[in-house]
Amino acid sequence: MSRPRLSAVAELLKPITWFPPMWAFGCGVVASGASADGRWALIVAGVLLAGPFVCATSQAVNDWFDRDVDAINEPQRPIPSGRMPGAWGLYIAVLWTLLSLLLAAALGPTALAAAGFGLLLAWAYSAPPLRLKRNGWWGNSACALCYEGLAWLTGAAVMSLGDWPEGRSVALALLYSAGAHGIMTLNDFKSIEGDRQTGIASLPVQLGVDGAARAACIAMALPQAVVVALLLHWQAPVHALVVAAMLAAQLLLMRRFLAAPVANAPWYSARGVMLYVLGMLTSAFALRALGGGGLA
Predict the structure, then answer these.
(1) Which residue ranges does UniProt annotate as crossing the membrane (predicted)?
(2) Model pLDDT for residues 111-132, shown as the tens digit of each residue
(3) Rounded-to-integer distance, Cα 70 and Cα 64, Å
(4) Dihedrals φ, ψ of 165, to 5°?
């Protein structure tokens, strides 16, 4: 059996998708309030775990089990194009799963538990019999939790040397996970036809283009509004104002997205999502200013 080129392997692992969990891990590090002195090796290893390992694994798993869908939607991808021959896509997915677990184990039991849960979600999202992505509500929830909340909590736990983060950090992680459900929906607009033909009930398929666009906007906006309220309650008014400004800018951008969702989803992703993650970081700095997320 011929082997894939390294360029095809890199394309399968999709480095461009690694940014959200790496960013969320960094937010957890900031929110912990712990000093980075003497812990840079842990931080770097954690960032690698979140992006080039766990997230990359999820991409390989998804491409293997989505190869028939991709043959319709994106035939240029490594597996349907033949640049990833035979079962190499599956082999890489399994190998990256094992490597991710090995790295997580080196970071301690809490990181191992978080990474293990994230990897289970990655396989459950794409692989039968669960294949959570067949329903946009479940599938997008799994991705959002893995990409944002789980990565945030892992960052906080690594900095606290394995202890579970305190309630404020957990609350922000879960809220930004809920908002990321809308971000995941933005990615579904590019594959409506293939999803419909192969029985994948993404939100654009279930709700229609306009309904899914409204659902994505609501899912992104409401958790951020709650974050603003919590920051005010926690006596962090400056940080709350910054997050509110980020949200207001997103609401303005959403008007253009809602006018033509399929055409403008990539445009909004490039702008609105950046404002969203900047708000995440601002919230993390708010916890740091308040003394850190603390320990349970």
Answers:
(1) 12-34, 40-65, 86-105, 142-162, 207-232, 238-258, 270-290
(2) 899 899 999 999 999 999 999 9
(3) 10
(4) -65, 155
pTM here? 0.92
- CA dist., res. 70 & res. 212, Å (int): 21
Say how many domains are in the chain.
1
Q: Terminal CA-to-CA distance of the chain, rounded, Å? A: 52
Q: Is 220 in a helix, a strand, or coil?
A: helix
Which structure tokens are listed for 159?
């900095």
Helices (H) and strands (E) in the chain, counts: 15, 0
**Backbone phi, then psi, for 48, in 5-degree steps?**
-65, -40
List the beta bridge partners of residue 135.
201
Domain that holds residue 16: 12-289
Q: How many residues does the chain have?
A: 296
* % of the chain with per-residue pLDDT over 70: 97
Checking if the pLDDT of 87 tops 70, the result is: yes
CA-closest candidate to residue 102, choices 116, 89, 90, 92: 116
Q: What type of residue sits at position 150?
A: L
Say how far apart CA 104 and CA 120 lie, in whole Å: 14
Tokens describing residue 218: 């609501």
The verdict on residue 5 lying in a domain is no
pLDDT at residue 194 above 90? no
Buried b (16+ CB within 10 A) or exposed e, 113-142: ebbbebbebbbbbbbeebbbbbbbebbbbb
What are the distances in angstroms from CA 237 to CA 148, 173, 279, 283? 24, 19, 14, 11
- Start-end of H helices in 234-260: 237-259
